Predict the structure.
Amino acid sequence: MRIQEGPGWRFGLDPGRSPFAVLIGSDHWAAELTLAEARALRDGAFALHAELAALQDRLMPEEAISLELERGALWLELEACGDALALRFVLRGEGPVRGLEGGWGAGATAAVLALLGQLDPGDETARQAQR
C-alpha cells in the first residue's frame, strides 16, 4: 500500500488487499476501511459537496453552513465557510463490526475529497465529482 500524505491528511489505496484496502487518516488518527466503506464515504461526501455547490449562489462569502447526511451506518457532516471545507463522519459499528469516527479540517478536506475520487476513476460518481 502506497501512502500519500499532506498537512492534516493521509490516504492509502491497495485494491488487492482484503478486506481493508483503504487507509484514511489525519495527523492524529488513522483507520483502514473496506472498499465498500470507502465508496460509501466518498459517495456521501460527494453528495454533500454537490448540495453545497447548488447553494453557493445563495450564500454570502463569509456565511457558514453545515450540511448533514445519513446513509445506513454512515453519518457525514460538511461544514463550509467561503472556500474552507471541513468534513466529519461517523461509521457506526453493529455487532462484531468496528465503529469509527474521524474528520478533516479546512486545510485537508479538499485533498481528501480529491483522493476519494481515485477509488474508482471509471465510475459515474467519481466522474461527476471531478467536474
User: Anything to note?
Assistant: Residues 35-55 form the longest helix (21 residues). The first strand starts at residue 2 and ends at 6. Helices lie at 35-55, 109-116, 124-129. The two ends are 28 Å apart (CA to CA).
